[in-house]
């Protein structure tokens, strides 16, 4: 169903009428219907119900080009990557954004308040659209023959899954949140004493019971019962319910349809044949060249995060990988993370450019753009691609970038080269497996955890960045690339170590030998693997918080990194209050009834 270019089934420009019918903002606006739009009764038919559900999926990412949009990116790059040590805000010092203060842990600033409210409104807009779907579905079911039992169950299950997801996003940000259901009439609900975990699990259990095992109507991207089970296990891990997580996630691993992609370059990609593959549990599926004239169905939330003017993309240089992250990909002689064995793993202060003898995990060059290293199939990354390397370092983000030959780039709107339809993974199978590995460690079954981590490392060792193209600049530097434009090249495999030496890097990755007998070591190994596998994917801060190590890790990070990036000298210390983001004051004010705020601010803010 792609009549206009690369249109995705669940996100398309044709849904605009339905989007208008169900779009409304949370809190103060929910209790008064918008003017000039359809009400629930008018939408109570198959077309209306299905359109309302599409609208609920659409809110997974930003929906317009307004400046507010950057706070609602599906990847959470601003909230969980910049604030975690994975990345700097990037760009240049005079190019201010709210994420400057996010990175500096000055979350009480007015600019952060504005961006936080963007995120709050996005997640509760998603909740509102999911609940609207449930209401119009109930009304449509009153009409005999309008929607059959199987479709009704699937639609209800998808809406409940999405309602749980949006609330979970809010929970990871703020912890103490209100929970909204379809029949709520008073939308100034309290966030005090709410059993959020219980509500999430209830919605997900209902979704599991209602959803089919395969996507309804064959539409990839729709929630299934297996996606809901995997998500349930994710919630159980966040709740510290290790026994429950083991039961849930072991079942998904043993019997579910998910699998690791055959190679790491197929995970984040613009090539259509690899999108929505076996690793996808939940992804924002953007759409480009679909008839919408401004490109708003593309990855708006990511469009700042491309190399700048000297690159093929032209803008904007945000979300630059940190030196700390790049150093973390260094490995020892056995291809294991150097950070596990060498306290000086983070000593390198200079640009890790092409030709460095430092052996690295091959995932580095699928995650980070480095000088002199092929940048997917776009040619060589070089210094002209960086807006201000003294300010924000020499590296560029890479996962969200489409390949030149993929056909994934938009042709319309502002700066179309920075918009694409690369799937933005919000939850993928490798993430789930590593959550299961955590549960195995906490449950004392260390060998199960080692097997999982080794599976992920074995996949990471299959291919490394190849030449990618045969353009003249690349060939001038690397004549060996003549006649070999492969973007991904296989590593040399042995039973315990995969390796490959190219003119730009010495790639090496090994698996952990048996047995794991030390729980503390196993815990560190799993946590380190999460950083390597999920780097720059908007998971890191949430991981550090739930592990209880955010204050130690991030204060140590700032202590070193402020000598590399001088603007970090004014960063505030990470303290207990930073374990939750402050609730936007405007939302607290709008919750007021009779002079009493029903929303209560998080501690310390």
Describe this structure in words.
- The protein is of the alpha+beta class and 605 residues long.
- It has a domain at 300-409 and 416-540: Serine Threonine Protein Phosphatase 5, Tetratricopeptide repeat (Alpha Horseshoe), CATH 1.25.40.390.
- Helix content is 37%, strand content 8%.
- α5 packs antiparallel against α6 (149-174), α6 runs antiparallel to α7 (196-210) and α13 packs antiparallel against α14.
- The relative contact order is 0.13.
How would you briefly describe this protein structure?
By secondary structure, this protein is α+β, with helices and mostly antiparallel strands. It has helices at 16-22, 46-58, 77-81, 98-103, 110-140, 149-174, 196-210, 225-238, 242-255, 323-328, 364-367, 389-392, 429-442, 446-460, 472-477, 519-534, 540-547, 550-561, 585-590; strands spanning 87-90, 280-284, 318-321, 359-360, 368-369, 396-397, 424-428, 463-465, 488-490, 492-493, 497-501, 506-510, 592-593, 596-597.
> What is the distance, rounded to the nearest whole angstrom, between the alpha carbons of the first and last residues?
48 Å
| CATH fold label of one domain | Serine Threonine Protein Phosphatase 5, Tetratricopeptide repeat
Q: Provide the helix percentage.
A: 25-40%
- The top-level CATH class of one domain is Mainly Alpha
| Spatial strand sequence of the major β-sheet | 4-12-11-10
Strand content: 5-15%
Radius of gyration: 23 Å
CATH architecture of one domain: Alpha Horseshoe
pLDDT < 50 stretches? 1-5, 7-37
């Amino acid at each position: 169903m792609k009549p206009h270019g690369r249109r995705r089934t669940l996100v398309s420009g044709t849904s605009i009428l339905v989007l208008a019918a169900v779009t409304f903002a949370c809190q103060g606006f929910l209790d008064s219907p918008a003017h000039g739009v359809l009400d629930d009764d008018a939408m109570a038919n198959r077309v209306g119900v299905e359109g309302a559900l599409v609208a609920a999926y659409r809110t997974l990412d930003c929906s317009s080009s307004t400046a507010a949009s950057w706070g609602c990116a599906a990847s959470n790059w601003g909230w969980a990557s910049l604030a975690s040590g994975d990345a700097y805000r990037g760009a240049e010092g005079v190019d201010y954004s709210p994420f400057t203060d996010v990175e500096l842990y000055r979350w009480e600033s007015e600019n952060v308040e504005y961006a936080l409210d963007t995120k709050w409104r996005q997640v509760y807009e998603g909740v509102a659209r999911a609940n609207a779907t449930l209401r119009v579905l109930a009304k449509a079911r009153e009409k005999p023959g309008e929607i059959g039992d199987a479709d009704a169950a699937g639609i209800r299950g998808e809406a409940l899954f999405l309602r749980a997801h949006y609330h979970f996003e809010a929970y990871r940000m703020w912890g103490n949140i209100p929970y909204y259901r379809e029949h709520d009439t008073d939308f100034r609900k309290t966030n005090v004493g709410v059993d959020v975990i219980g509500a999430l699990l209830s919605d997900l259990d209902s979704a599991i019971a209602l959803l089919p095992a395969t996507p309804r109507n064959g539409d990839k991207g729709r929630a299934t019962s297996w996606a809901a089970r995997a998500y349930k296990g994710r919630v159980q891990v966040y709740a510290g319910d290790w026994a429950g997580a083991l039961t849930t996630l072991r079942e998904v691993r043993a019997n579910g349809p998910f699998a690791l992609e055959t190679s790491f370059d197929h995970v984040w990609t613009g090539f259509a044949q690899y999108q929505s593959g076996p690793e996808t549990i939940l992804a924002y599926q953007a759409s480009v060249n679909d008839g919408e004239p401004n490109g708003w169905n593309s990855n708006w939330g990511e469009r700042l995060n491309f190399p700048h003017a000297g690159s093929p993309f032209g803008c904007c240089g945000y979300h630059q990988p940190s030196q700390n992250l790049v150093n973390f990909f260094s490995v020892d002689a056995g291809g294991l993370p150097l950070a596990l064995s060498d306290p000086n793993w983070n000593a390198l202060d200079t640009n890790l450019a092409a030709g460095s003898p430092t052996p690295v995990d091959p995932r580095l060059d699928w995650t980070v753009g480095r000088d002199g290293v092929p940048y997917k199939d776009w040619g060589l990354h070089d210094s002209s691609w960086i807006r201000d390397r003294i300010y924000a370092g020499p590296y560029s983000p890479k996962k969200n970038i489409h390949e030149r030959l993929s056909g994934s780039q938009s042709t319309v709107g502002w700066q179309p080269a920075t918009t694409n339809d690369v799937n933005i993974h919000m939850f993928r199978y490798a993430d789930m497996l590593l959550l299961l590995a955590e549960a195995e460690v906490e449950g004392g079954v260390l060998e199960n955890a080692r097997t999982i981590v080794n599976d992920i490392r074995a996949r990471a060792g299959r291919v490394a960045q190849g030449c990618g193209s045969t353009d003249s600049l690349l060939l001038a530097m690397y004549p060996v690339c003549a006649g070999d434009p492969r973007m991904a090249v296989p590593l040399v495999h042995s039973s315990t170590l995969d390796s490959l030496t190219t003119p730009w890097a010495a790639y090496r990755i090994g698996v952990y030998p048996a047995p794991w007998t030390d729980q503390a070591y196993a815990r560190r190994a799993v946590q380190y693997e999460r950083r390597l596998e999920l780097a720059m994917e908007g998971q890191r801060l949430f991981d550090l918080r739930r592990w209880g190590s955010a204050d130690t890790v991030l204060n140590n990070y700032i202590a070193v990194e402020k000598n590399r990036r001088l603007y970090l000298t004014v960063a505030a210390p990470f303290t207990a209050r930073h374990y939750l983001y402050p609730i936007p004051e405007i939302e607290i004010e709008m919750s007021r009834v009779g002079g009493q705020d029903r929303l209560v601010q998080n501690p310390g803010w």
